[in-house]
Amino acid sequence: MAATHETSFPERNQGWFKEQLTEVNQPIRRLLEGYSNIPTSEVVSHVNNIREQGFAANPYPCIGLYRFTLLTLLDHPLYGTIVQRLKQADTSYLDVGCCFGQDLRQLVFDGVPSQHLTGLDVAQPLMELGYELFLDRHLLHSEFLVADVFLGSTQTAWKRLEERGIDVVHCSAFFHLFPLEQQIAAARQIARLLKKGGIIVGRQIGSCKPGDVPAIQEKSYSYRHDVSTFDDMWRIVGEETQTKWRVEGTLDMVGINPDSPVENEDSRRLLFTITRLQ
Ligand SMILES: C[S@@+](CC[C@H](N)C(=O)[O-])C[C@H]1O[C@@H](n2cnc3c(N)ncnc32)[C@H](O)[C@@H]1O
Asked: Which of 140, 194, 142, 135 lies closest to 169, judged by CA?
């Protein structure tokens, strides 16, 4: 598997361990001050402190490079629609590979009832750190489930999600961790969770030249899509699960740094919406 709990190459992991921040972006500052009530003067050191602990637990580039401070769902063209939809009774949101759960907290800050929202990750320590980052362990009524996407409904928690059905799945910086075959396997499991008319939204590192790139775990690969290959993937998933999907997406340079150790000149941000039609 291309995702990593791999800590045996600390010198390699340091390639995506950015020096400490001296300021954070405005949206995450607003969230940490307004939702978590962290004093203005303590926000930066608080974020730096959580980043250290998170990277020690699991050395992902999204942690080392502070990408968790970018509230990408907020950037999605459907954000306002998603907030309105999730304010309705009996609606549900699942953040797959939620890590610290920053986008889930933004939804709560914007008025979505927290009991409509669920986070899911294979790494419990990262979800625990989410409570530390947002200081809401005793306030938030969202569920956080420890589960492995690839094991699907063999896990009780996942089976419950399948039975309930999900309206909005957020899936950011997740598929791009894996080779194409594994992405298809993961998408097959996620597809089974969506209600008809439900959507999967997110962003990941894409490429204007789709194909394999070295993954963060040594000697493994992950596949980077453009909109057309992502559409092909969901067509295969549809055929395999007797469902039908519409894929919409854009490639842009937002948050992309071609000089970063995990990107290159072909890298793009792939921002997507996948709608379950049947
Ligand atoms: C690169 S991080 C992205 C975190 C977050 N979605 C974001 O955009 O900031 C990928 C997350 O997926 C989780 N993950 C990796 N493999 C998984 C699996 N098989 N099942 C569930 N979660 C997984 C990791 O633990 C990690 O928190």
From this structure: 194
Which residues are CB-neighbours of 224 under 8 A, at least 6 positions away?
176, 205, 206, 207, 210, 211, 212, 213, 266, 267
Give, using CA atoms, the residue closest to atom 9 of ligand 1: 68
SS3 of residue 226 by DSSP: coil
pLDDT at 119: 98
Report, as an integer, the average pLDDT of 93-106. 98
The CATH fold assigned to 69-276 is Rossmann fold (3.40.50)
Residue 61: pLDDT over 60:
yes
Q: What is the DSSP letter of 113?
A: -
What 3-state DSSP class applies to 138? coil
Q: What percent of the chain has pLDDT over 70?
A: 95
Is 274's C-beta closer than 6 angstroms to any atom of ligand 1?
no
